[in-house]
Amino acid sequence: MSEEPKFVLLALTVSSEGRERRRLDPADGRLAAGPVVIKEGVEYSLGLEFRVNHGDTSGMRYIHVVKRAGITVDKLEAVLGSYGPSPDGSPWKKELPAEEAPTGLQARSGTYSVRSRVIGDEGTVYVDVEWSYKLAKEWQ
């Protein structure tokens, strides 16, 4: 009988100015739902919804690397903190600081691939998923 994982990512959310929050649900190590569209130059933020099933996690960090055509164009690292199982069983939610989407010469059409990871201070990788986004000059 296998033990349930210590940390489970339930959703990654993306919100930006002028758009409804988009929820990406993990499926087999990848985030489904196709690329998220983000307007050039607007602020967007990521949120994580997760559950800690047993024990404590300490010094957790969220790291993502953004690539376009195989070249790294951005990297985000944010401290998530330390968590244990929620007293009432509800999932934990953490909103990350806002980022500004590229604009002008930095913004190139095409799909940007993102590799998101949640890592504990002892080096344990709790989450390693991929998702993507596209930049748009105007909302479609």
List keywords for this structure.
140 residues; five-stranded antiparallel β-sheet; mainly beta
Written description of the protein model:
The protein has 140 residues and is mostly beta strands. It has strands spanning 7-16, 22-24, 26-27, 30-31, 36-39, 43-52, 57-68, 71-83, 92-95, 99-100, 111-119, 125-136. Strands 1, 2, 6, 9 and 10 form a five-stranded antiparallel sheet that branches. It is elongated.
SSE series: EEEEEEEEEEEE
**What share of residues is helical?**
under 10%
**Biggest sheet descriptor:** 5 strands, antiparallel
Q: Which strand-content bin applies to the residues?
A: over 45%
Low-confidence stretches: none
pLDDT averaged residue by residue: 83
Q: What integer value in Å does the Rg equal?
A: 16 Å
Number of helices: 0
How many DSSP E strands? 12
Q: Alpha-carbon distance between the termini?
A: 48 Å
User: What form results from the Cα inertia axes?
Assistant: elongated
Strand-helix topology:
Elements: E1 7-16, E2 22-24, E3 26-27, E4 30-31, E5 36-39, E6 43-52, E7 57-68, E8 71-83, E9 92-95, E10 99-100, E11 111-119, E12 125-136
Parallel strand pairs: 5-12
Antiparallel strand pairs: 1-2, 1-6, 3-4, 6-9, 6-10, 7-8, 7-11, 11-12
What's this, in brief?
With 140 residues, the protein is mainly β. It has strands at 7-16, 22-24, 26-27, 30-31, 36-39, 43-52, 57-68, 71-83, 92-95, 99-100, 111-119, 125-136. The strands form 3 sheets. Strands 1, 2, 6, 9 and 10 form a 5-stranded antiparallel β-sheet that branches.
